[in-house]
Amino acid sequence: DRPQEPVFVPKGDKKTVFKVPNNYLADRYKPLGVTLANRFGEDAGEQVDVKDISLPPLGDITSLGRHENFSLFIPKHRRLAGKLINIFLGVRNVDDLLAVCVYARDNVNPYMFNYCLSVALLHRQDTKDLDIPSIIHSFPDKYVDSSVFTRAREEATIVPDGSRAPIEIPRDYTASDLEEEHRVAYFREDLGINLHHWHWHLVYPFEGAREVVAKNRRGELFFYMHQQIVARYNCERLCNQLRRVERLINLREPIKEAYFPKLDSLVASRSYPARVANQRISNLNREVDQIQQDIDDMERWRDRIYAAIHQGFVQSESGQNITLTENEGIDILGNIMESSILSPNRTFYGDYHNMGHIFLAYIHDPDHRHLESFGVIGDSPTAMRDPVFYRWHAHIDDIFQEFKSTIPSYATDQLDYQGVSVTGIEIQAQGSERNRINTFWQQSDVDLSRGIDFQPRGPVFVRFTHLQHQEFTYRITVNNSGGSRMGTCRIFMAPKFDEKGNPWLFNDQRHMFFELDKFPINLRSGQNTINRSSTQSTVTIPFERTFRDWDTNRPQGGDALAQFNFCGCGWPHHMLIPKGTAEGFQCQLFVMISNYNNDHIDQSIVGTCNDAFAYCGLKDRLYPDRRSMGYPFDRTPRNGVRTLQQFLTGNMRVQDVVVQFNNRTVRPRSNN
Ligand code: CUO
Fold first, then answer.
1. pLDDT tens for each residue of 426-435
2. For residues 537 and 523, what is the distance between their CA atoms, to the nearest angstrom?
3. Catalytic site residue 338?
4. Which one-letter DSSP state was computed for residue 182?
5. Segments in 312-459 forming alpha helices (H)
6. Choice among 168, 338, 515, 583 that is catalytic
7. Quick one: what percent of the chain has pLDDT higher than 90?
8. What ipTM score was computed for the predicted complex, to two decimals?
9. Fewer CB within 10 Å, N or C, the chain?
10. Which atom of ligand 1 is nearest to the CA of 197?
11. For ligand 1, atom 4, which residue shows the shortest CA distance?
12. Positions in the chain whose pLDDT score sits under 70
């Protein structure tokens, strides 16, 4: 269970102890005030005085119990979270914030507390340079097999700190190979991927104060980031002899893919419910969550969204028509579909994507007769584990693509960069053949002790196995027949053949391209050679940042600190490249140099974490690429283009590459 004592932050061997005014404690603990303060005895380190302020009333925020699960997809939970975020954003200074936090920490639902505080820290002027600790350290129960905690506790109780052995999580623990969907479990259950998804939704909440939600192109980024997840997942499926994921179009049909998560919520002391094969969703009537929704509502919303796409405009709450323009239409549609508070008409277009998560999350107990909570798809830290997540998002993406197919294709002059031609592409990994990327399993250790309450304390590591690739370098040669100028280098990859082994029609293959990197380049007149390391990708963040903890691995002061902040968001670098196959999986690497003058956003990004903007944007800045997200693959091809080769203009080039999987496991890199 979560500790009930005043908040503390461990630092080295000693704990920083907050001295909490007695009236902050829950009624049950008030009589014990002094005893609690001395509870850590010799372990107590620095003492932090918590200011005694007049506390804001928490009102119905406490109506969500401390031992219940919490999800932003549930309207009641969002409403309560919105209130708590506003309290955290509203206090005058950091001392008052600390005071309110200490008070709230002991009185509100812990998941909700963690979420609201994270959002507030990201958005307050006076705290935005603080790190947000990765949620895996606060709530490891959302990420790892529940059996780990008993074993970890046992290890911690018996073995002194320093000699503890890591608890190993097997790679295959949620199903066996009888279930063919299990072949891609390593992707769905990857800790880094799930952390990225949690972080993305933390940075881009769909409800709350307008200034927090209304980030530049957030509706479009909702579309693009999730489109890329589906593209990457489809590539993994092809690597594993599975077809592309089937869209969940018919809401009333049985869902054949089952999922048994084997996660227990430590806060709620309950297992996450499983979805057995061939269940159907039902109308929802759950008083406890204040949800009453029919499948009919979903179908009406969907039809209205399709109608808007085909009419070319949406209708606002006040009855005005808002045109879905070529460039901005997708952003409006993203907010409508998700939906966010920026949707121009939530009454009419509803809350389609979010409610889809909820219908699926309550498939096992739609009217709460069994007193069950939601399944993993009902919450952003765990949603990507379930195969039905991808079926749902493939459907959502298909609606976005319907819109994209109504806008004009790119003409060649919107693609070409006159006088710039890519003359060669090569990728090279050390000790490997040219144009071949090697993948393998790697083991890594993460310290989960912060999220588990046991004595004596000290690190307890969990060892998990994840996909990894050998780092490589792109070597791209570019001929520039004009004077010195700048370009944007865009690198994508896609499978070369479809599931039947046939070459793609371009209009299908374009949905399979996933981004690997995007960066500006200076072009001299004549021949240019670009050398770029895979580790520099602006899609990914390094392993250490995905898993970073509050006070470890932290650069000190000034720019280094500012660089480090915010950006726990980013695709995990170890998942940059799909698994491939033992025989070698054939892919196509696509490189385009576009005209920088048409791409560039004039803004300063000094002090901003800017190394994973492709899926996450830049904090407090404009999205740093003026093109539509997914460019040049986001629109149907111009007339006459049937193949990728026919699509290419002089500034683009394609290179065949092979992704070769070697079934070996590399031991952990380090223990910290
Ligand atoms: Cu990220 Cu459906 O939006 O999970």
1. 999 988 899 9
2. 20
3. yes
4. G
5. 329-338, 346-349, 352-361, 387-404, 412-415
6. 338
7. 64
8. 0.99
9. N
10. 1
11. 380
12. 1-15, 33-40, 42, 450-457, 548-567, 607-608, 669-672
